[in-house]
Amino acid sequence: MEFAEHIKTANVEDVVLRQPLQPPSRGTLCITGHHLLFSDREESDSRQVLLLLRNIDAIEKSVENLTGYSGFFSNASHSERMSGSSGTITMKCKDLRVLQLDIPGMEQCLNIAHSIETLSCLDCVSAMYPFFYRPVDLSLPEQWGLSSPEMHYSQMKELYEKWRLSTVNRDYSVCPSYPPAVIVPKSIDDDTLKKAAKFRQGGRFPVLCYYHKKNGMVIMRSSQPLLGANRKRCKEDELLLQAVIEGSDKGYIIDTRSMQQAQQARMTGGGFESKSFYDRWKRFHRQMERGKALQESLIKLVEACGDESNNMDRWLSKLENSKWLSHVQNALSTAGLLVECVERDGHSVLVHGSEGTDCSLLISTLAQLIMDPCCRTMEGFLGLLEREWIQARHPFQQRCAHSAYSHARLQQESPVFLLLLDCVWQLWRQFPLALGFSEALLLRLATEVYASDYGTFLCNSDQERCALEVKERTHCLFRALLRPTERDYYSNPLYERTELAIWPSVHPQSLQLWKGYFLRWTQQVRHLEEAQEEIRNMVIEWGKLARS
Amino acid sequence: MEHIRTPKVENVRLLDRSSGQRKASVGTLYLSATHAIFVENNPETRKETWVLHSMVSSVERPPTTSSGGQLILRCKDFQIFQIFIPQERDCVCACVRARVCVCYSELYCLSFNPNVNKEEREESWNFIDLAADYKRMGVPNNLWVATAANSEYRVCDTYPSELFVPKSATPAIIVGSSRFRSRGRFPALSVFFALQAAVCRCSQPLSGFSGRCQEDEMMLQALMKSNPGSDYIYVVDTRPKLNAMANRAAGKGYENEDHYTNIKLQFIGIENIHVMRSSQQKIVDVGEMRSPSVTDFLWGLENSGWLKHIKAILDAGVFVARAVADEGVSVLVHCSDGWDRTAQACSVASILLDPYYRTIRGLMVLIQRDWVSFGHKFSHRYAHLDRDPKEVSPVIDQFLECVWQLSEQFPCAFEFNERFLIAIHAHVYSCQYGTFLGNSQKERRDMRLHERTHSVWPQLWKDRGKYTNPLYKAEQSQSQGVLRPNTSPYCFKMWKGLYNHAEKSTPPRQSPADFLSAVREESQQLEEELTNHQEPITWEKIEVPRRRTSCLPQRHSGPDPPTLYREPIASLAQDSSHTLSSAPANQKTHTKEPALSLPLGPHGQLKSHDPDDLSTCSDLESGVADLSSRSSSGGDVGKDPDLE
């Protein structure tokens, strides 16, 4: 294997591993192409730690050469005297865990550090672990994923009258980032779609993303229109949007940029739907942070959580300064606006920002969770994530290359998906009975999105996934999560379906730091987990009694 | 009592601002001797709002506008009511205001008369037995004894008459020591841990720059000797060191380590009552912000300094508990007079050390001992009788909040829930019962409160069902032993339940706790049935599922009406009919008790509007229909920021 060239030292004995919440342990360290394996020397209860190298965000190494001082350190341990030097590697993981390895021997330490550094950020997707992950109890699936646009359409009988499934993108030629099949108004033919696609950035023409059964209104999703400085227009795009609100007096457009940003976008060829050409559409602008700013916010927040000064003022000002909770508030309130338009105002909505692959997905996903009880079950939620984030394409490979600890220069990284999970957590906390899944599922997803055994979050688009045969050669996380044992573990014991919309409060006091994630490796979170465990036990006990 | 003629004002509009209500409801305002009562005109609901006069901390009267006059009542439990009085009745404003203020001249607890006879009243005062609690701790024993030195409050008039001191502390030492301590508050036992180390409390020594007192030094020596396990004691001065040093100029101060052998002095740095008073005002203001951004909110939180103070108090408790539990060393705690910060530090330490104080009854005992009996100045701090604003300070608020912060960190460790803490808070301020009246045991005796008022504890105990935390399990690891909380700043958050009524009803809007209580109750019933009837009878089988469904409506307390997301930063819009807050409900049920002859609707109607009565929430659909109609009417305001 080509990984071998990066591994100079594969095994080291007598390594001390320090990890949060556990006493340090001494044992053997082993490094492979994808993993770091540590096994305890204690024979009574041998512990193993298996860490995906991909999970490591940053490492720090320090070596000490003790050879010159060996005379002074006559009582140094045997092994130290033998090698005369030692080193420490601190590994900061993408799941926010910090591990430390004390390795005897400077050279070994440097070799290990080098291997970790190189192997943890290999760019080649097809060499990543999901392509090698072959658990014994699981054969590669017949069907990858939970559903497909075709299946989704065929199950939605309500759509048949006014909507059709278009395969205009079957070879990804119209829009490289869309799946081969998309749902569009019935009255719009494929030629019109092709022309409309040319008028939208990246070819992401407006497609249906959600149909609200209660009133037949829909959420559409697209990228920005390419007006440019001289205000081009596109009849086909106008027709397409017109067809969406056929039979209704108006529709709303939620632009996830501020008015100013949208206007500036015209200078670079983008823009927004102007009132004169889309006269029945009303536009809202909601500035949502994305890209680099969001990544920096995450970095600041994680830094604040690691601050050990024990000073209240400092903590509060760092928390405020990170702006993370502002982003959560903003996302939830924009999603709330979207739901308000659809559910209460009874009108269809088009959502877009510039590319339509980040914030647009974020708020359309949240809106569906708020409105649609079907999306709040575990299957429903995973299906929703698959539709919105996998099929409609969030560029996971780019966005999740690094997390908060990395020293690498920021490129396309942005924790949009993590922000989504945080917002869902806020919903779960505000409505502990309304969601069919528990915090544990959100934590699992937050981990898997950065480093995974599964192929679900690989690649940037459906097209790339096809090219690399991801669907044939890897396992699907969502399917794995729905296996009976896993499902039990991730389900919410208190879940009780409600047909009502769950309107989140976005008052700052109602929003809390997601301790389960950001302070995941502290003792405090253990107590909260115990409480959750207690709740589960009580409900199970109650169920048993009620049945008998 | 003079409620022969109950003044009433018709066509008044009331806005419960603190619960986030946006539209005022129209109704009639009645003013009894003790309460302002607002009854909605709406014949379907006839919702009642009772405001106890003594709970009103201030009445503001903004200038009269064209639509009439208005009054703003701010309550001590942080509720705010805005009353609009129509124009033609302008002068009525003044009357209402006068009434609310004047009626305050008599304490409510003196007129409050629940239907109990004399024996029951006397019984109520014996409900909490401090001697029994000391016995539970293993006191008296061969090291600690009860002293009669303070009988008839001869040595210290702010201390209780029953006190425990080291066996070797003779009356002469006690009297000598008390002369050297501010207000005569000599070192006495607060809590005895694991039959070894003790937490004792006192006030600052009158040492000045060089003063010393042989008896006081002997007293501290006796404290050390009464713990054979260690050869020193900690003296914890809960004040910032600077404050303690400043006190030396006034002939007070702190123990000089050169004069006292075997003590280790430790300063904690809890600020004084004046700092706390203004800090609380700031955090109340933060809670009142209408639609703050996250930045505004966090800035306000930081600026108030409130959480910093809470952390300092918890840190003090943690220090004491660690010394006692981990090092086995006794601790003597004091501040200036030893009745505010000392009470806080000792009682927080007790909560951490002894699981008993984490039960409903245990917390009552603890408050009775460290606060009521040891002479915390309830009347001054909570402005019961004479309202000297300089004496007022939220000292017990802070203790209750520390307990709440701990219960957030250890969800399974406390037998009681947030409602219990809020109920105690309300009783401290309302003075419905005599428990929290007066500044010391002596004052209470002189006022003959035991004959003239009732004790709050039996009442709270009777309602314990609604104060129980369903997650509490006495045998669970979290509940056992010493609590070791994390006091990193990120573990603290604003106590929304107390400071923000607007948000109180919101998250968690669906309360897992309420649901679990129902589950627990039903599990017990089912278990009983199973054990009682080996052979299940058919009708029982039918009954089980029926009962199960009957508890299900409780699972959803009904989503709130949505926030108006259209404002730049969304603010909250809630409808009064949807505020399902529990604490105001508690307040209401307490204040509802007096049998006043008011022309109110049939009493049966009251019940269905008690927010705690979950049957009101069962009709969820209608609630939503109501929302959608509201939205379409008030929909288009400021909707289109189309700025081409």
From TrEMBL, chain A:
Entry superkingdom: Eukaryota
One Pfam family of this chain: Myotub-related
PROSITE patterns with a match to the protein in the record: PPASE_MYOTUBULARIN
Entry-linked CDD domains: PTP-MTMR9
Gene Ontology MF terms in the entry: protein phosphatase binding
Residues covered by the Myotubularin phosphatase domain: 143-518
Entries under InterPro entries matching the protein: Myotubularin (IPR030564), Myotubularin-like_Pase_dom (IPR010569), PH-like_dom_sf (IPR011993), Prot-tyrosine_phosphatase-like (IPR029021)
Signal peptide: none
One GO CC term, this protein: cytoplasm
One example of a Gene Ontology biological process annotation: negative regulation of autophagy
Record Gene3D superfamilies: Pleckstrin-homology domain (PH domain)/Phosphotyrosine-binding domain (PTB)
Family, similarity comment: Belongs to the protein-tyrosine phosphatase family. Non-receptor class myotubularin subfamily.
Protein name: Myotubularin phosphatase domain-containing protein
UniProtKB/TrEMBL annotation, chain B:
InterPro entries: Myotubularin (IPR030564), Myotubularin-like_Pase_dom (IPR010569), PH-GRAM_MTMR6-9 (IPR048994), PH-like_dom_sf (IPR011993), Prot-tyrosine_phosphatase-like (IPR029021), Tyr_Pase_AS (IPR016130), Tyr_Pase_cat (IPR003595)
Polar residues: compositionally biased ranges: 573-588
GO cellular component, one term: cytoplasm
GO molecular function: phosphatidylinositol-3,5-bisphosphate phosphatase activity; phosphatidylinositol-3-phosphate phosphatase activity
Residues annotated for substrate binding in this entry: N272, I273, C335, S336, D337, G338, W339, D340, R341
Limits of the Myotubularin phosphatase domain: 124-499
A Pfam short name: Myotub-related
Keywords per UniProt: Hydrolase, Lipid metabolism
Domain of life: Eukaryota
Catalytic residues, chain numbering: C335
BP-aspect Gene Ontology terms: phosphatidylinositol dephosphorylation
Region described as Disordered: spans on this chain: 503-542, 573-644
Family: Belongs to the protein-tyrosine phosphatase family. Non-receptor class myotubularin subfamily.
Name of the molecule in the record: Myotubularin phosphatase domain-containing protein
